[in-house]
Amino acid sequence: ETAIIPAGGGAFLLDLIEGKTIENAAATGASEYQSFDLSDHLTGMFKAGAFSSIVIDAGTEHPKKEENHD
Q1: Which of 1, 17, 39, 57 has the largest count of CB atoms under 10 Å?
Q2: What residues contact residue 50 under an 8 Å CB cut-off, 6+ apart?
Q3: Over the stretch 2-46, which tens digit does the pLDDT of each residue have?
Q4: Cβ neighbours of residue 45 closer than 8 Å, sequence gap 6 or more
């Protein structure tokens, strides 16, 4: 089955194939198409079986969530 990639999706997908982060790939897609919708693209790619794995960079520091003790 052939899938149609929405506008900006080609640039987004190529960046992912090249190993860029989702954040960087989405920025590229948005630069190609002003109404780029990350959610739509990820949903379509998951439905099409475009991903075989997801790598989480354990070396990236994430801000700790502040706990509210009130």
Answers
A1: 17
A2: 13
A3: 777 778 788 888 998 898 888 899 999 998 888 888 888 888 888
A4: 13, 51
